[in-house]
């Protein structure tokens, strides 16, 4: 099969990069159990109370209620120091720690989406679902890592994706406008209603559909897909076995996702080192 021209690779990757903005914000802010909201509410309570502790009440019912409130406060205090966006702990995390958070967040969400029957309708029954979602996950994590390290320009992220996912060294500057009308239109189609959904359940469903569309877009680069970061041979071989195949496929994709993240971090560090010299 002849090599895919750089122009086609850039044309596919640009809308993907443009669509990652709302999708990554949705994944970052998704809070199905309202943990982040509870943590922020606790921070407000502490600020208003000035850190003062109310005196223990008298009476049996009063003491029981006090114990329950104290337990809730301790749980929220621990939550407020967890690695969740919007918490003080998140603000203090290094870019490398946030990289690992993205690997975990995207990986868990991808596995959840893959477990939903018929996520891609009739087409999903004819295509390898785990491979498509795994490819989308790798692309999302690579772009998230670029942003956490301050690399936000679209064509820089296109170069990064081409290098990490497909081993290609492309120069997007030679192939049109990264903010062209066609790029914006395709990006809107990929992201769908992610940014417009207000209800948590609707947002999660929109994220799942966006993830599927973005994976199918990258899947169009047939002939380049064997170059993407893969899991170790043990899990790849196990993916073909009955019964345990689903678990092995998941572990293989998780392993490949971590390899993609490491490659992306090295690429960004190398490029930033060149810019600084």
Could you characterize the architecture of this molecule?
The chain is mainly alpha-helical and 277 residues long. The protein folds into two domains: 210 residues, no CATH class; 44 residues, no CATH class. 68% of the residues lie in helices and 0% in strands. It contains eleven helices and no strands. Helix 1 packs antiparallel against helix 9. It is globular and about 80 Å long. It starts with 5 loop residues before the first helix and ends with a helix. The mean pLDDT is 79.
Keywords:
single chain; 277 residues; mainly alpha; 2 domains; 11 helices; 68% helix; 0% strand; globular; EcsC family protein
Short note summarizing the structure:
This is EcsC family protein. It comes from Actinomycetospora rhizophila. With 277 residues, the protein is mainly alpha-helical.
| Tally of separate domains | 2
Beta-strand level of the residues, as a percent range? under 5%
Low-confidence stretches: none
Structure classification: mainly alpha
Gyration radius, to the nearest Å? 22 Å
Tell me about the largest β-sheet. Answer: none
- By DSSP, the count of extended strands is 0
- Described by the principal axes of the CA atoms, the overall outline is globular
As a percent range, the share of helical residues equals: 55-70%
**Count of helical stretches:** 11
Distance between the termini: 40 Å
């Amino acid at each position: 099969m002849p090599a895919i021209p750089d122009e086609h690779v850039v044309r596919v990757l640009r809308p993907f990069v443009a669509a990652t903005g709302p999708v990554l914000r949705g994944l970052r802010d998704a809070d199905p159990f309202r943990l982040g909201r509870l943590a922020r509410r606790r921070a407000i309570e502490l600020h208003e109370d000035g850190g003062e502790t109310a005196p223990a009440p008298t009476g049996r019912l009063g003491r029981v209620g006090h114990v329950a409130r104290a337990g809730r406060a301790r749980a929220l205090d621990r939550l407020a120091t967890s690695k969740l966006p919007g918490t003080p702990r998140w603000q203090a995390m290094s870019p490398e720690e946030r990289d690992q958070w993205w690997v975990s967040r995207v990986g868990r969400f991808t596995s959840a989406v893959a477990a939903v029957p018929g996520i891609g309708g009739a087409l999903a029954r004819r295509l390898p679902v785990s491979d498509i979602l795994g490819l989308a996950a790798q692309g999302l994590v690579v772009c998230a890592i670029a942003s956490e390290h301050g690399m936000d320009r679209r064509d820089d992220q296109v170069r990064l994706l081409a290098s990490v996912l497909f081993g290609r060294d492309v120069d997007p500057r030679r192939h049109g406008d990264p903010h062209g009308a066609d790029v914006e239109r395709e990006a809107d189609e990929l992201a769908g209603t992610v940014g417009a959904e207000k209800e948590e359940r609707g947002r999660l469903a929109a994220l799942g559909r966006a993830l599927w569309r973005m994976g199918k877009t990258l899947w169009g680069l047939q002939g380049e897909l064997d170059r993407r970061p893969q899991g170790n041979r043990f899990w790849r071989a196990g993916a073909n076995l009955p019964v345990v195949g689903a678990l092995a496929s998941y572990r293989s994709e998780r392993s490949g996702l971590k390899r993609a993240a490491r490659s992306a971090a090295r690429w960004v560090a190398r490029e930033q080192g060149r810019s600084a010299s």
